[in-house]
UniProtKB/TrEMBL annotation:
Residues 572-591 are annotated as: Disordered. The keyword Coiled coil applies. Pfam families: NPH3. Pathway: Protein modification; protein ubiquitination. It comes from Ceratopteris richardii (Triangle waterfern). Residues 174-458 form the NPH3 domain. Residues 509-543 form a coiled coil. The keyword Nucleotidyltransferase does not apply. This is NPH3 domain-containing protein. Keywords: Coiled coil, Ubl conjugation pathway.
Amino acid sequence: MVADTDSSDDDAIGYPLNKIQKLAQRIVHISLDGMPGGSGAFEVVAKFCYGEKLDLMANNVAMLRCAAEYLHMSEEYGGSNLIKLTENFLDNVTVRSWKDSIRTLKSCEPLLPLAEELSVVKKCVESITMKISSEPSLYGWPELDRKRMLQSPSGKLLWSGNSAKEMGMELKVDWWYEDISILSLPLFKCVICAIDNRGLMPEAVAGALMYYARKAIPGMQRRQEIGHGQLALSHSTSSRNSEQLFCLETIENLLPSQKCITPTVFLSSLLKVAMILHAEQRCLDSLEKRIGAQLEHAVLDDILIPNYSELSETLYDVDCVERIVKHFVNTSKSLVLGGHSHELDFSSSSSAFPLVSVAKLVDSYAVEIASDANLSPVKFRTIVDSLPHGTRVLDDGLYQAIDIYLKSHPSISETEKDALCSMISCEKLTQEACVHAAQNSRLPLRIVAQVLFAEQTQLRAAFTCALEAVASPRTSAAEYLPTPHQSHMLPAPRVANVENLRQAAEINQIALRADLTTLRHRIAELEDECIKLRQRLERKAVRLNSLSSKLGCRSSIHAHLPSSISINPRLRKSPASITSSPCVVKSHKSH
């Protein structure tokens, strides 16, 4: 910027400009390339020097304060000079209004670092943080009043520890998110750090960071697609955007460290974008640890992380999920087990035990990735076996995942198939899963035999309980219901109630007899299946023995044969006789 001046015009200047006067003594053309605000600021200052009225506003006060400092317009060169006027406006007008504080701070973006050195940024930030932690109606409503796009993580706290109900107001904790989101990242960081130091609830800080991230990082606005072509396009365009990467790493560093403050779905989205942008390993590790610490609150979509690495051909990043689960186990081990080695009590709700919820999540994840043709058996077994033993209440999800994997990978060896199927605990399979497994040709015969034995054991236990339940109503009726010759001694309503109870007991006995008949038929079917299976195994044993005799060794297949199980003939009586005879179940010694 060049300004023409003449020393003869010095008398016309109301307030001498020390720097310009010194330059004018030597040259005619004055260069002010470092002038804050450029030619526009110089024009306003020049008019002020010639006595024109100065119109100070929130949008220009920071610029004029920096320009006055650059031109040395202090009280030393004239009363009520520009430095004093702008300082008074900042202290008495700007900081008193929420709108003016936001506008002034926004105008400081091109004036850094001078605006920060002159404490203009500090004054605006302190004003904003004070109003956020106070009742906003005392300082004017937020500048932007459009519909909010983000709900706060916790709607209980409003500001200063007062709830909206206590204050008689229906305001949200996120009323200030949108206003500060118009700031540049350095100024936004200053506001967040000041809010955090002031002791505001971490939920509010996390909500503001989430709002800013979704607005500043385009990848946070949408779910990452799984198609390889779309991933390649997103990868090529986002990797060059260093501003988004810097913003992401800054936001991750500002997130509260407390558990469950930041929603898992946001952390997962942040991790996916960080992988696309090739964020630093420190940032990736921190996000994985954050997700792992609260994995019990995650859903399947949160851990379905596409594989962005060119070194692996799998569809999903299984290694990343494995690390997340390990972080969760390391974090929860001392909390759940209490530092002692004992079995978990699963009689309570699964929500009380995070390991149980995560076990269901891992099983769902295993079901989702099992059909990936590029997933090796070792990697699949690693992710399935990433939780401690005994954390699963039921193994139905595990069985479903292994069955899908065997169906999608028919070429795996028998050794690998046995290693996968050995992870299934047949005692933890429901009846529906047992029926499916008994007819599943993809499972090894040894596993099928174990499933049949486990199902027969369950049916035997259910059979015994049913017999006890049948005998119980008859005993209770004999004890508490009056005999027919005593019914005429009771009032009419009482006689009706007695008859209803007796009819209900008879109906229950009929239903239980029908259930017992079904159970008896099912046990007979299982006996037939066991006999057929044993015959198949014996035929294979004969062939193997004949082959091994030539090789000089013996087959050990008999060691894996299940023992036969027989039902006492008394269980084959008619349903009517079952209610009066005890149930006796016999079984040969089994492995």
